[in-house]
Design goal:
Distance between the termini: 32 Å
Radius of gyration: 17 Å
Order of helices and strands: EEEHEHEHEHHHHEHEHH
Number of strands: 8
Oligomer: single chain
């Protein structure tokens, strides 16, 4: 199905029962809704599950590059919830999707029951302005790397299991270098700009035990800024922990949601 917003269309799929708690899944850079296939298969038995293709990915349309990506996507997701007559949902974001979740929780607190973050990080407090210096060198560096090698590097950096790496190589090739460059720069801009206050909703923060050290530090710092959060490490998993170890990930999500909804 497609949600039409001012400027484009967002592809989404809905599973489960309408009277169950709604979960909205938002993927990372150069992926699509299929990264959450294992979550949809299990969690649709307990909840209403909505998985989307973010703009510039999958079947969704391109987003105007003059717009701030994560903020704009947060507004689009709020519009989708309105169209589906959902008063409140739990938002689950993976990497880039985590930043979108934080923006949605910040701008639309009444619509977000709780947030779940996979290999993402907090936007409060904002990162050092010096981080912005990295942005001008991203495009030249990525452009110089031959595409097949670059897509393999992209997968090796984010996934532990061969099937997860194969998925990432395929979706990265479909998205292309320009999308990876654009959204990597957008994520750095998000961290530099930040948000002016920590999110208030109950929050679950997860990352794989093989995650990059700087992202582990980001998640630990994120956890320390919140009053109502749980930090969990998924064993035998890398950045895309939900695909590398779906059973452990799903169990943590169900446990968290059961705790906050009972």
């Amino acid at each position: 199905m497609f949600y039409k917003y001012d400027g484009g269309e967002l592809y989404y799929e809905v599973s489960g029962q309408d009277n169950n708690v709604p979960l909205v899944f938002l993927h990372g850079v150069a992926m699509d809704h299929k990264t959450f296939d294992s979550q949809v298969a299990e969690l649709q038995n307990h909840y209403k599950v909505i998985a989307v293709d973010l703009p510039d990915h999958g079947l969704s349309s391109r987003l105007d590059r003059s717009l701030p990506y994560s903020k704009t996507c947060a507004h689009i997701i709020a519009g989708l919830l309105n169209q589906l007559n959902i008063d409140q949902a739990i938002l689950i974001g993976q990497s880039l999707g985590s930043f979108i979740v934080s923006h949605a929780a910040y701008f639309y607190p009444d619509k977000v029951l709780a947030t779940i973050h996979i290999g993402g990080g907090g936007l409060y407090p904002k990162s050092s302005f010096l981080l912005k210096a990295i942005n001008p060198v991203i495009a030249p560096l990525i452009t110089l790397i031959p595409s097949p090698y670059m897509f393999k590097m992209f997968a090796d950096h984010k996934a532990l299991k061969p099937q997860t790496r194969a998925y990432l190589i395929k979706t990265a090739a479909l998205s292309g270098k320009s999308v990876i460059i654009q959204l990597t720069k957008a994520m750095i801009a998000d961290m530099v700009e930040g948000i002016s206050a920590p999110i208030q909703q109950p929050t679950l923060i997860l990352y794989g035990d093989h995650e990059a050290a700087y992202i582990k530090r980001m998640n630990i710092k994120f956890h320390s800024t919140l009053n109502n959060s749980r930090l969990t490490i998924i064993n035998d998993a890398h950045h895309i922990a939900n695909q590398d170890n779906p059973d452990a990930f799903n169990n943590e999500v169900i446990s968290f949601i059961t705790e906050i909804t009972n």
